Amino acid sequence: MAGNTCGTLFRIMTWGESHGPALGVVIDGAPSGIPFTEAHVQSWMDRRKPGSAKTSTTRKEPDKARILSGVFEGKTTGTPISIMVENRDARSHNYDEIKELYRPGHGDFTYDAKYGFRDYRGGGRASARETVGRVAAASLAAEILKSEGISVTAATIELGGIEARRRDYSLVDENPYLCPDAEAALAMDQRVASVRSEGDSLGGVVEVVATGVPAGLGEPVFDKLDADLAAALMGIGAVKGVEIGAGFAAARMRGSENNDEMGEEGFLSNHAGGILAGISNGAPLVVRVGIKPIPSISKTQKTVNRSGEPSAIQTLGRHDISAIPRVNVVCEAMVTLVLADHFLRQKAVSWRR
Amino acid sequence: MAGNTCGTLFRIMTWGESHGPALGVVIDGAPSGIPFTEAHVQSWMDRRKPGSAKTSTTRKEPDKARILSGVFEGKTTGTPISIMVENRDARSHNYDEIKELYRPGHGDFTYDAKYGFRDYRGGGRASARETVGRVAAASLAAEILKSEGISVTAATIELGGIEARRRDYSLVDENPYLCPDAEAALAMDQRVASVRSEGDSLGGVVEVVATGVPAGLGEPVFDKLDADLAAALMGIGAVKGVEIGAGFAAARMRGSENNDEMGEEGFLSNHAGGILAGISNGAPLVVRVGIKPIPSISKTQKTVNRSGEPSAIQTLGRHDISAIPRVNVVCEAMVTLVLADHFLRQKAVSWRR
Amino acid sequence: MAGNTCGTLFRIMTWGESHGPALGVVIDGAPSGIPFTEAHVQSWMDRRKPGSAKTSTTRKEPDKARILSGVFEGKTTGTPISIMVENRDARSHNYDEIKELYRPGHGDFTYDAKYGFRDYRGGGRASARETVGRVAAASLAAEILKSEGISVTAATIELGGIEARRRDYSLVDENPYLCPDAEAALAMDQRVASVRSEGDSLGGVVEVVATGVPAGLGEPVFDKLDADLAAALMGIGAVKGVEIGAGFAAARMRGSENNDEMGEEGFLSNHAGGILAGISNGAPLVVRVGIKPIPSISKTQKTVNRSGEPSAIQTLGRHDISAIPRVNVVCEAMVTLVLADHFLRQKAVSWRR
Amino acid sequence: MAGNTCGTLFRIMTWGESHGPALGVVIDGAPSGIPFTEAHVQSWMDRRKPGSAKTSTTRKEPDKARILSGVFEGKTTGTPISIMVENRDARSHNYDEIKELYRPGHGDFTYDAKYGFRDYRGGGRASARETVGRVAAASLAAEILKSEGISVTAATIELGGIEARRRDYSLVDENPYLCPDAEAALAMDQRVASVRSEGDSLGGVVEVVATGVPAGLGEPVFDKLDADLAAALMGIGAVKGVEIGAGFAAARMRGSENNDEMGEEGFLSNHAGGILAGISNGAPLVVRVGIKPIPSISKTQKTVNRSGEPSAIQTLGRHDISAIPRVNVVCEAMVTLVLADHFLRQKAVSWRR
């Protein structure tokens, strides 16, 4: 049933398949009067584009975003904003193989199980390309946050087992891996090259940090800020784990270590990652996601066809070695969307303060 | 704003504070005709009760659940089911200290920041006691799952750094830590005793496994099964991390390792934890949550009062050393609720199949 | 499926059957800091009580409302507010007849068709008594409106064909029919007496007027203010028609008559009933509902039993002759709930203005 | 805030302004496997097109609908279906006058009051053109209903005070007024011509009848079938009243007249209009809406400008005399959408029966 709506007040509905005519999003609930143009959307679209990173695909994706409604004279009108990106390379590919075979690690089998059949062209709705609409919507949500002094950044802190040992966020845009540690970025590059030559793929960890988040966002007990962030991030195709602040490491701490004491200047540490009892506490929001390795690999794998008969499959052509760093902007987008929604939710009930 | 509703078709709204007159839940959307009595609820309530585990509190909690509507002649009628548990020990305590001081690791500060003031008695709505309604609702959701052959179990696989090395689920109810490894349970007991003597507390990891889940549950791209599970579990007070299947470990695997190949018998491994592209794949569902150590400790900690002036605080009285094992049934409840909801969601659109 | 939730930001979930242990409501989303006590609820509960009006039932209903959560030191805390009313006369009646027979004009047949069976005691959830939760919730919504200068009044403008020819709202509380025309009230009394002696029942029209509503409430194009009001009112058991402003009479007007011209003082007429394009325009909100005659009559009527076999039925005992005036407070409650919700919805996106 | 989503399981989000680049809808929640093509959409689009009726506008609207996602090999895939209609005559008009003046009976004033400014071109989102998305979505919902034997028809039963005295639905498509009474259609034609010469406009009443609706649809107590129908219809721009079955006439009946008795063949009358206690009863669904006269008239009217200064306005150019018959397909669309949604909602909980 319906499951493509996200957000309560800043609500979006995304649509589109990998190789259909177009993809897009409708944003319902944006306040009126926010300056917003196709240039805003495009700047986010361009961040989805493969850069020089060797992890990246070589497919050309000159995604051009069009705003079809809800913006007048350069400002949002308060009515739904429809944004569309046409699929330019939606040309006829040869999908004969994946039409009948289930690719390991992909949604082919589950889409068939759920819907009875599937749009097999390039993964259809299960393709990473689905995130176009999310990113387009985030380009507007980001304008709301910016006007409130909230800033969100995603960084690669682990790739193929190489960990960033520093958090110099000024470096994130300086290397193709969006890594806050220049040295680690170099090591990642070598790891990627070596794994590429083996026809295999890599996973990693992305950390998203939001600063300037006011205390008070989050709606206990089910729409807590951490709960909504967890859903938003776990819903990204490649994500298999989400943790806030110290996360799983907190499970190995004592209370006396993990508790963030308070002083005149505020919290003296941030193991909570900016969220206490599901509500932002004014400290930086820190969320990490575990990204699984890309399932498309050129190594031969066992699988079955739609009739359940054993077969083997091998992904030909050039593919990304890792969802990172292309997934980073998607992680940033989802955190941005959740924060904008919760910001409005809190405004709805606190107007007298 | 409103944030106490969970689920789309099997929808619940919980209410109640730690030391108010009562707590409860209203379940809206349960199919009619399901056999359901107060005994069903009570059996789940009793699992929240401190057992012989030394981790457990010594407070008496003879929670008696009453069904106030929606059940007639022992069966659900299809109308809302209201379940209430009265707070028996809601007697006047001395809350003078926590009324003015923010306890580190608790929601005291954020509730004040959000709402302007708070019900400080025993943590109010931020208390673990809030979960009474969730568990009561799950006792009905479990009946739906049972009738479809779906079974959900939560087990402690790590406590205070002690890891279970086995997964013998038949042992879970045999030891006070709900641990599937008898040897580990003994070690946990020693760890708890030692930490108790230090006035500190412990965290751990709970794993929830669901078997019998049919392929096809989950609604891409925002209401994916893993996204909804992540929200449901991250929304539990003590949880700081959620992972599915291999989870964060997948971030360190190669694609060739992490991909679950398929054969005539189905999937040859289960790194996906039963979910592919946000849809259940028929393999066992495996979810793990990282539980932070209980913030209430008898060690003295720095804090501030409501005016921001530095102070110190120490939690007196007897307290749990860990949210585990009392949180386990809550984790199980949340997974149960999400599965029942998604089961109905899939029925809504697949009636012809 | 789930259908007992109303409102987006000021959201309520009601529960309870006519002859179950209790009925109630949970309010999720009320702003914190609103003064609210059981006395507020009780004052609305008492308006549901049969007064001296001869239309009223003679059953005693000393409904006592209890607030079980969400209020602390006399103010709302921002957490869910649970309000319960116990059914005092839920004693064992003799329902043998209506257990098997479908009462004409009642929901007996449709509840069986939908749910497979039903709680036949006193109509179960289809009883007018279901509205207890709505009215309890409105007692809080009314406090929000009051603090913003918004006032809502329901008046009987037609009963059994007798029309009020005046709209002197100061008279509404002066006569048992809540009629703004004293002369009409007397005629209504005679009509009621005569119909009572025939064992029949009457319908009528209730008008709800809200003053002080600011311009700008309503969310096009589906959650327009008039759309939400129509749903809220049509969802009351006895209502068969809803109209705004001139309503159906507008269908017979010319554009030049129906259009409300504007001048320096605002609108020069109010055929729109305070709503233009689904958004409040600052003029008084005027809504009317058509109330069908009470289906329980002592005249004998043809019906069938659960097996479809023809039979006859006659409602014994004393019954109301009309849902009016008891339904009036329910109409007022629903308008109050919708306005409070839309007031918060508009706050959520207009905080900068 | 967000208000452009309609439906729970068959959920749509519409977007687009009268003179923006395009309008459209995203349908989220349609079951997979339904045969659906652009021809289905187009057949409904064409019904919006002005026919030979003299009431109709002379503007050309060759609306071409494109399906951009969610359909593969001629069948729905279960993923969101995006449908877009480009605005061909979105050329630069002269809007200088309505940019500053509030047209009586239009949403100009309320849009400014709500959003601070507005897209004044042709009414923006408040234009009747907004309904393109609703009708496009209904073309798919209708396929679901058709496969279940449910049929929906809208007929003009009153226009400018001329009432249809017959209900011969076979005539509806035989005359330009979609009137089930050929004689009345002729009188309507004369009335329209005379009012057109006066530069004025007309309202009327549209009746929507649905046959084949199974008993059991509707979700008490807030999402009752009549409540959802009322919202769906009242949310259409020109609608000021909604009634079910006998509607307001029931307010003047005795219970003994209004109650629908039952016999072996089912209900012996249909004053309830197919709905009892908010649930369909298997009898034909009968809903009527009161349509206000079109506000754009060439007679001069008093108004104010954006600064509140008195002025006068007159709508030049050729305009429709009445929203009827163009609004009829919109009424039919909304009833179709509500029925498809409730059909799925009932399936979700009744799969065992």
Please specify the SSE layout and strand pairing.
The structure is a homotetramer of 353-residue chains.
Chain A: E1 5-6, E2 11-16, E3 22-28, H1 38-48, E4 65-67, E5 71-72, E6 75-76, E7 81-86, H2 96-100, H3 108-115, H4 132-147, E8 151-159, E9 162-163, H5 182-197, E10 204-211, H6 225-234, E11 239-244, H7 255-258, E12 262-263, E13 266-267, E14 275-276, E15 279-280, E16 285-291, E17 301-304, E18 310-313, H8 328-349
Antiparallel strand pairs in A: 1-2, 2-3, 3-7, 4-7, 5-6, 8-9, 8-10, 10-16, 11-16, 12-13, 14-15, 17-18
Helix pairs in contact in A: 1-4, 4-8, 6-8
Protein architecture, described:
Four copies of one chain form a homotetramer. With 353 residues, the first copy, chain A, is an alpha+beta fold. The first copy, chain A, has a single domain, classed as 4-Layer Sandwich (Chorismate synthase, AroC fold), CATH 3.60.150. Chain A is built from eight helices and 18 strands. In chain A, strands 1-2-3-7-4 form a five-stranded antiparallel sheet. Chain A has a five-stranded antiparallel sheet with strand order 9-8-10-16-11. Chain A starts with a strand and ends with a helix. About 2% of the residues of chain A have low confidence. The interface between A and C is medium-sized, with 18 and 18 residues. Strand 11 of chain C pairs antiparallel with strand 11 of chain D, so a sheet runs across the interface.
